[in-house]
Amino acid sequence: MLKIGDKAPNFVAEDQFGKKHSLTDYKGKKLILYFYPKDLTPGCTLQACNLRDKFKELTSAGYVVLGVSADTQKKHVQFIEKHQLPFSLLADVDKKMVNLYGVWGQKKFMGRIFDGIHRKTFVIDENGIIQNIIDKVDTKNHAQQVLNK
């Protein structure tokens, strides 16, 4: 289980265009690495649009935003185009990142129990150290949760 102060695990994953991203690409930058269950669903759309609407504030504060789900690159492109998202979404279809960051596990929704991605955000500093972990994501005000810490 990752905690604040830990070195963030390195990852390599492709974005919606097939461009590879790794944690080392962001050395010297502050990174918002947010994990979410599924493209084009109500809660995930609220969260992505909140980050989109506050994107200027986030970048002014020095942050780079990356979203991660197990959706395909094609689905990410649809999500980005439909909602004009100004940041990259990583396609973790093999679930390497979600397992590396410990966000894959049992969930309960409408009385059903299943495995899936837990909505969780890691705020990582310029040296790759986890500065904040947001477990209880407020999808409507997620950018403020990051900025207020």
Topology:
Blueprint: E1 12-15, E2 20-22, E3 30-35, H1 42-53, H2 55-60, E4 63-69, H3 73-83, E5 88-91, H4 96-100, E6 104-109, E7 112-117, E8 120-124, E9 130-134, H5 142-147
Low-confidence stretches: none
Tell me about the biggest sheet? 7 strands, mixed
Mean pLDDT: 96
Distinct helical segment count: 5
- What sequence of helices (H) and strands (E) makes up the elements? EEEHHEHEHEEEEH
Task: State the CATH superfamily name.
Answer: Glutaredoxin
Q: How would you characterize the overall build of this protein?
A:
This protein is α+β, with helices and mostly antiparallel strands and 149 residues long. The model has no long low-confidence stretch (mean pLDDT 96). The longest helix is centred in the first third of the chain and has 12 residues, at 42-53. The strands form two sheets. It has a seven-stranded mixed β-sheet with strand order 2-1-5-4-3-8-9. A two-stranded antiparallel ribbon has the order 6-7. The chain has helices at 42-53, 55-60, 73-83, 96-100, 142-147; strands spanning 12-15, 20-22, 30-35, 63-69, 88-91, 104-109, 112-117, 120-124, 130-134. The chain has a single domain (12-147), classed as 3-Layer(aba) Sandwich (Glutaredoxin). A hairpin with a 4-residue loop joins strand 1 and strand 2. It contains five helices and nine strands, in the order βββααβαβαββββα. It starts with 11 loop residues before the first strand and ends with a helix.
